[in-house]
TrEMBL record:
Active site per database record: Y23, H100
Function: Catalyzes a trans-dehydration via an enolate intermediate.
Source organism per UniProt: Paracoccus thiocyanatus
Binding annotation for substrate: N74, H80, D87, I101, S102, R111
Pfam families, alphabetized: DHquinase_II (PF01220)
InterPro entries hit by this protein: DHquinase_II, DHquinase_II_CS, DHquinase_II_sf
Record-given protein name: 3-dehydroquinate dehydratase
EC number: 4.2.1.10
Site (Transition state stabilizer): R18
Subunit architecture: Homododecamer.
Gene for this chain: aroQ
Reactions catalysed: 3-dehydroquinate = 3-dehydroshikimate + H2O
Single Gene Ontology BP annotation: aromatic amino acid family biosynthetic process
């Protein structure tokens, strides 16, 4: 079964409590559960992680080089700051899909630029937590 790493950046551990008017009331545990249920339907194996630390996310991307066929990543604030995460993703051979829960283009201008978009095959923004599921459906078509 193809394996997909689903990676989440800083503050997403607080999903459901953090600015619910922007990010909704679903928790990251709910997102993980829904991703696992859909992955089982689609015939994908999932490794689901969250970290508040840039280096830890980079280590997970390096791990994905050996263990995964695709990466779905919500880099959160690192989207807009991290050349290091871009560089790590550039060492990964399979498809990368960037997910944002909110529509970053409707928000502050500093959220309009993404380093990760320079690598991502596709970007999903503004579909709420459903964006993760849309990303998995697309990944299943690419690597399934
Ligand atoms: C986010 C958007 C980012 O700008 C923000 O820093 C986040 C979450 C989103 O999912 O909408 O933490 O990636």
């Amino acid at each position: 079964m193809p394996t997909v790493y689903v990676l989440n950046g800083p503050n997403l551990n607080l999903l459901g409590q953090r600015q619910p008017e922007i990010y909704g009331s679903t928790t990251l545990a709910d997102v993980e559960r829904d991703c696992r249920a859909l992955a089982a339907e689609l015939g994908l194996e999932i490794a689901f992680h969250q970290s508040n630390h840039e280096g830890a996310i980079i280590d997970l991307i390096h791990e994905a080089r050996r263990s995964a066929q695709a990466v779905v990543i919500n880099p959160a604030a690192f989207t807009h700051t991290s050349v290091a995460i871009l560089d790590a993703l550039n060492t990964f051979d399979g498809p990368v899909i960037e997910v944002h829960i909110s529509n970053v283009h409707k928000r502050e201008s500093f959220r309009h630029h993404s380093y990760v978009s320079l690598r991502a095959e596709g970007v999903i923004a503004g579909f709420g937590v459903n964006g993760y599921l849309l990303a998995l459906r697309h990944v299943a078509k690419l690597v399934g």
